[in-house]
């Protein structure tokens, strides 16, 4: 039996090295004379199985998404109702800005906002680095970041008297 030999350093880096192993196995298969299932048959069977699995997974994901959306909408309505009740009890006149903020809070309730994680993580890392290295004094700030509008505001905390 011939052995496929190749120096890895001389191979084309754009070609996956596994292709050479496949070619060697195909040559070996041909040399043995054993009749095997063709690669085309294997690929079509694998593709059919993959398509069936994807369809089942898609249906399950769609059902879960619908349930999650319904639960989120119910939670949003509950938060809005609670906010209206609190504002009414405190005698606060509901303005467009308050209604907008309440709606944003309700929509963002229990969701992951990567933008918030990135901003807060960056700020926290910066302050921790300042504290550890003692290069700069950490600044006591209040940071507010709205992920829905991607707006941020910083308020400096006044020094202690």
TrEMBL record:
Gene3D superfamilies: NAD(P)-binding Rossmann-like Domain. InterPro entries: Ubiquitin-activating_enz. One of its GO terms (molecular function) is ubiquitin-like modifier activating enzyme activity. It comes from the Eukaryota. This is Uncharacterized protein.
């Amino acid at each position: 039996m011939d052995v496929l030999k190749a120096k890895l350093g001389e191979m084309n880096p754009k070609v996956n090295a596994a292709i050479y192993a496949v070619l060697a196995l195909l040559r070996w298969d041909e040399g043995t004379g054993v009749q095997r299932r063709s690669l085309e048959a294997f690929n079509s069977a694998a593709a059919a199985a993959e398509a069936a699995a994807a369809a089942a997974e898609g249906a399950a994901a769609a059902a879960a998404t619908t349930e999650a959306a319904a639960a989120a909408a119910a939670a949003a309505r509950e938060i809005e109702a609670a906010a209206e009740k609190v504002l009414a009890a405190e005698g606060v006149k509901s303005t467009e800005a308050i209604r907008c903020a309440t709606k944003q809070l309700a929509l963002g309730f229990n969701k992951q906002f990567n933008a918030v994680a990135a901003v807060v993580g960056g700020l926290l890392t910066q302050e921790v680095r300042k504290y550890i290295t003692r290069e700069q004094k950490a600044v006591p700030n209040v940071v507010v970041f709205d992920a829905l509008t991607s707006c941020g505001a910083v308020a400096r905390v006044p020094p202690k008297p």
